[in-house]
Design a protein that fits this description.
- The complex is a heterodimer.
- Chain A is of the alpha/beta class.
- Chain A contains eight helices and ten strands.
- Chain A has a single domain, classed as Rossmann fold (3-Layer(aba) Sandwich).
- In chain A, the strands form two sheets. Chain A has a six-stranded mixed sheet with strand order 6-7-8-3-9-10, sandwiched between helices. In chain A, strands 2-1-4-5 form a four-stranded antiparallel sheet, covered by helices on one side.
- By secondary structure, chain B is an alpha+beta fold.
- Chain B folds into two domains: 195 residues, no CATH class; 80 residues, no CATH class.
- The longest helix of chain B has 43 residues.
- The two termini of chain B are 30 Å apart.
- The chains are: A alpha/beta, B alpha+beta.
- Chains A and B meet through helix 2 and helix 4 of A and helix 2 and helix 8 of B.
- The complex binds adenosine-5'-diphosphate and magnesium ion.
- The site of adenosine-5'-diphosphate has 10 residues of chain A, from helix 1.
Chain lengths: 223, 300
C-alpha cells in the first residue's frame, strides 16, 4: 500500500536518511522507533506525501508521489488516517466538527451516530462542543486519533500518539489501533514509548523498525 | 455549460466549506465597502456614458436632418434667385422639403437682437430657405456646385461646421466614460485579489489542516470564493442603489441646459444599475478563485 524504495531525504543540510526502503503491506502493524530527531516524523510525512523524497521512490497505493497532482494527493490522504504529532486542528471549530472534518471535506458528512460513538470511545463526548485550544494535551491527542480513523482509512499513521496521555489512555488507544489492524488496516506507529511496544506485542504481531545511522533496521526481540 | 455548473457549485454548494475558514470581520467590511464605492462610481460612469451617447445621437440626428440656404441678392433679383434655388433643391435627390422662411419667422429669428418691431420686409436681409433632408441625406458638395452655377447669391449651410465638434466632444465623453468603467472594473478585480490574498495568507494554518485531511484545492478555494463573491455582491447592491437614488434625485427638465439634467437614465436605461451588482459578483468570483487556486498551487 505504501512503498519506499531507496529513499533519501534532506531538509537542505545533511541527509536524514539515505537508501531507505520500507513496505507497508495491507494488514501489517509496524512500530517506528528511534531517538528524538532521528527523522520519524519526516519518514511519516513521506508516507502521506507531505514531503517528497530527495532521492529514491515513494509509492502510495501504487502511485509514484512524484507524478501525483495535488488533487491525487488529496484523494490518497482520504485513504490514510494520520495522527499528527502536533495534532493540527481548526481552532475556531468545535471538537466534534474537527473530528468529522475528513468526512466533511470529502462530501460524506453523514456521520451522525458514528461520530458520537467514536467520541464516546475516546472519552470526549462531554468535550464535543469545546474548541480545541480549550482541551488538554491528552484530550487533543485522543481527538486527533478519532479524526484519523473516522473515515475508515486503509492505513493509519500515528506520530507519537501517546506522547501526552496517561498509561490507561495509551492502552485504550493501542487497543483501538489493534482493533483497526484486525479489521485489515495497516498501522504504522512512530513512538519512543517502549512500554507501549511491549504491550502491543502481546496483542498483535508487530514489526519494530528503528531509525539508526540514517538507516532503518529491524529491532530484535531485545525489547 | 459544465463551466457554469461548476461555477454554481463553487458558489452554492457546501456551506461547510465556508465554516472551515474563520470569519474575518474587518477585511470583510473593507471588501464590502470598496465594492459599494466601486459600484457607486460604476453607476455614475454608466449614466455619463449613456447621457453623452444620447446627446451625440440627438445632435447628429437633429442637425443632420436640416440645413439652411441663405440667399443674398439685390432686391430686384431676389425673387428670381429664390425661384431658381427652389428649383435646384426640388431636383436634388435626398431633399424632402425646401421652404422659404416667411417674414414672420425671419422676424422671430432676429427678434432677440433687434426687437419685435423690425421691418424685415424693407431691410436688405438675406432670405433663408429651410431644407429638410431625407434619411439618407444629400450630396452637399454636388449641391454647392450646382447652386454656384445657377444661384450665385446662395450660400448653403449644412451645419456640419458647428455640429462636428459637438458630436466629437460627446463621443469623446462617452469614450471616457467607458474607459472609467473599465478602470473601475479592473480596480475592483485588483482590490478583491489583494483582499483574497490577505485572507489566504491569514488562514495558512486552516489551509494546511484542510489539506492534511484530504481536502482538494477547489474545496478550499470554495470557502474563500463564496465569501468574497457574496461580500462584493452585497456591497455593490448598496453602492449601486445609492448611486441610482442620487441620479433619480437630479432635477429634471431642460431648464438647466439639457446636458446636465439629461445625465440620468431614461426608461429601460434604469436597468443598467441592476446589472452592476451581479457584474461585481462575477468579477469577485473570478478574481478570488484565481487568487485562491494560484496560492494553493504555489504551496506544493
Ligand atoms: N521543516 C524542517 N526544516 C528543517 N529541518 C527540519 C524540519 N523538520 C525537521 N527538521 C529536522 O530534521 C530532523 C528530524 O526531525 P523529525 O523528523 O521531526 O524527527 P523525530 O520525529 O524523529 O523527532 C531534526 O533534526 C529536525 O531538526
Ligand atoms: Mg517527531
Amino acid at each position: 500500500m505504501i512503498e519506499l524504495q531507496n529513499v533519501a531525504y534532506s531538509y537542505g543540510g545533511g541527509e536524514l536518511f539515505s537508501d531507505l526502503s520500507l513496505s507497508l503491506p495491507p494488514g501489517s502493524f509496524h512500530f517506528l522507533t528511534g531517538p528524538s530527531g532521528a527523522g520519524k516524523t519526516t519518514l511519516l510525512k513521506l508516507c502521506y506525501a507531505e514531503l517528497k523524497p530527495t532521492a529514491g521512490r515513494v509509492e502510495i497505493f501504487g502511485e509514484d508521489v512524484r507524478g501525483m497532482s495535488r488533487d491525487r494527493v488529496a484523494l490518497a490522504r482520504r485513504r490514510i488516517g494520520v495522527v499528527h504529532q502536533d495534532c493540527q486542528f481548526l481552532d475556531h471549530l468545535p471538537l466534534a466538527e474537527n473530528v468529522a472534518l475528513p468526512l466533511t471535506v470529502s462530501g460524506r458528512s453523514d456521520a451522525g451516530t458514528d461520530l458520537e460513538d467514536l467520541l464516546a470511545w475516546v472519552g470526549l463526548s462531554r468535550q464535543a462542543n469545546q474548541l480545541p485550544p480549550e482541551l488538554s494535551g491528552g484530550e487533543r491527542q485522543r481527538a486527533a486519533l478519532a479524526r484519523a480513523v473516522i473515515s475508515s482509512p486503509e492505513i493509519v499513521l500515528a506520530d507519537e500518539p501517546t506522547g501526552n496521555i496517561d498509561w490507561d489512555m495509551s492502552q485504550r488507544l493501542l487497543a483501538l489501533l489493534v482493533e483497526l489492524n484486525r479489521m485489515g488496516k495497516s498501522v504504522l506507529v512512530a513512538t519512543h514509548d517502549l512500554q507501549l511496544i511491549r504491550a502491543a506485542k502481546a496483542q498483535v504481531q508487530a514489526r519494530v523498525l528503528r531509525l539508526k545511522g540514517r538507516q532503518l533496521v529491524t529491532a530484535g526481540a531485545d525489547l | 455549460m459544465q463551466e457554469v455548473w461548476r461555477a454554481a457549485s463553487l458558489l452554492g454548494g457546501d456551506p461547510q466549506a465556508d465554516r472551515a475558514v474563520p470569519p474575518s470581520g474587518f477585511t470583510a467590511r473593507l471588501t464590502t465597502f470598496t465594492a459599494a464605492a466601486m459600484a457607486f462610481l460604476a453607476v455614475f460612469a454608466l449614466a455619463l456614458s449613456l447621457a453623452t451617447g444620447r446627446l451625440a445621437d440627438r445632435w447628429s440626428e437633429e442637425l443632420a436632418r436640416s440645413s439652411t440656404l441663405r440667399i443674398s441678392a439685390p432686391a430686384g433679383q431676389m425673387d428670381a434667385q429664390i425661384g431658381a434655388a427652389l428649383e435646384v433643391l426640388r431636383t436634388t435627390p435626398g431633399i424632402a422639403e425646401a421652404r422659404p422662411l416667411p417674414p414672420e419667422e425671419t422676424r422671430a429669428l432676429l427678434e432677440p437682437w433687434f426687437g419685435p418691431d423690425l421691418p424685415v420686409e424693407t431691410l436688405p436681409i438675406p432670405q433663408l430657405i429651410a431644407i429638410t433632408e431625407e434619411a439618407g441625406g444629400y450630396d452637399a458638395t454636388g449641391l454647392r456646385a450646382r447652386l454656384q452655377a445657377e444661384v450665385p447669391g446662395a450660400v448653403l449651410d449644412d451645419h456640419t461646421r458647428w455640429r462636428e465638434p459637438l458630436v466629437d466632444a460627446a463621443t469623446w465623453l462617452r469614450l471616457l466614460g467607458l474607459v472609467a468603467l473599465a478602470l473601475i472594473l479592473a480596480s475592483t478585480a485588483a482590490m478583491i485579489t489583494l483582499a483574497a490574498q490577505a485572507a489566504l495568507a491569514a488562514n495558512e494554518q486552516v489551509i494546511r489542516v484542510l489539506r492534511l485531511v484530504g481536502a482538494q484545492d477547489t474545496y478550499i478555494a470554495r470557502a474563500f470564493v463564496r465569501r468574497f463573491t457574496l461580500r462584493a455582491l452585497g456591497g455593490a447592491v448598496a453602492g449601486a442603489a445609492l448611486a441610482a437614488l442620487g441620479i433619480a434625485a437630479l432635477p429634471s427638465g431642460e431648464a438647466a441646459g439639457g446636458f446636465l439634467t439629461g445625465l440620468g437614465f431614461r426608461g429601460p436605461g434604469w436597468l443598467w444599475p441592476l446589472v452592476v451588482p451581479p457584474f461585481a459578483a462575477v468579477v469577485a468570483f473570478i478574481a478570488t478563485r484565481a487568487a485562491a487556486l494560484r496560492t494553493l498551487r504555489a504551496q506544493s
